[in-house]
Every structure is written in C-alpha cells, then in structure tokens.
Here is the input.
Amino acid sequence: MSRRVAGILLAAGRSSRMGGPNKLLLRLKSGTLVGHTADELLKASLSEVVAVTGHDSQNVDDELRSRELKRVFNPHFAVGMHSSIRQGILALEKEHDAFMICLADQPDFDAKVLDLMVEGFRRSAGDAIVFPTYRGAQGHPVLIPAVYREDILAHEDGDFGCAYLFKKYPEKLVGIPVESDRVVVDIDEPQDYLRHGGLHAT
Here is the structure.
C-alpha cells in the first residue's frame, strides 16, 4: 500500500554543547552537516520535506535555500525540540500518512535507512511507530503515523522529542534493525566533530 510520508528536519537547536559555532554549519565531507542531512532527506521516498529553523536561522536558511524543501522558522525554538516538531507538522502543505522526524546533526544520515523505514511503515496497519535499531539500541530518525498528530499537537512543549508516544503506545513500536551504527551517532560536542574528520565551521 502506498502511503505518503513527509520529512521534518529539525534544524533549530542552539548547539550549546558545541561551545561556540553552530554545529549544523560545520564543514563535513563535501558540505555542511545540515546540508548533508537535507540532501539525504530529499533523496528518500518522501512526499514533502520541511526544515524547521530557529537558532541562527538566517545562516541555516542560507545553507538550505538552494534545496527543494520548505523552510519554516520556529519562534519558540528556545523552549525545546518538541516545539519544532509541532511547527514542522503545522507547516506541511499536503496531507500525509506519517511524519519522518529527523535530527539535523547526524553525520552519517542515509536515505537508504529512511526508505527502509518507509517500507516498514507501508507494510504495517498504518499506526506503527517505526525507528531504526543498531544492536538493540534505538536510533533516529523516527517515523510517526499521522493518527498520532493530535497527540503531538496537544502535548506540552519542552526539550524532548516524542518519547511520550513510545510510553503511551508501546504495542505500536516497530524497530528496523540496521547493520551500521550511523543511526545512533550524532554530533554534540567538539570531540564528536573531530572524530568525524571535522576541521572548521563555515
């Protein structure tokens, strides 16, 4: 069954643990961290992609401007991640069957993993909360069916994602095993950046 899945890229955080530069604009490989995650989202089998900005929004916007995705500013980004998830859902222009909630700070973010998750969702009854796993550990991104949209919009904002849905609907959780640790790796601190070959910020 073909179901429509939207991608929501969370690019509003303050990078406080990086101790200075906006980590999303750090150079990695042939571009920036946020540019890489956006490009992989656009390669995946998604019907629409929205990037939610907040901290340093002008520079993040400039980095994403050339890409075919919608950019939306979250004025409440300082409240935490959940406000950006809400903003992303409200910014979608089409109706979708699920939302792929993606962090912008995963250096090995891969469209192939997204497609595995979309495939798993399309094989489900339509209410499965899907996420990748590596050696039993839950990774990111997380695919949340639209049937939980009102749960998300009604929930108070804070510096958290949608873990409360995992607690409320444990019987709906579906983990997709992957063979790489890329789904559990992100960049939070300078040593994380150096470990991935980073040199300087834009």
Observations:
- The chain has one domain: 5-195.
- Strands lie at 5-11, 27-28, 31-32, 48-53, 70-73, 98-103, 129-134, 137-138, 142-145, 173-177.
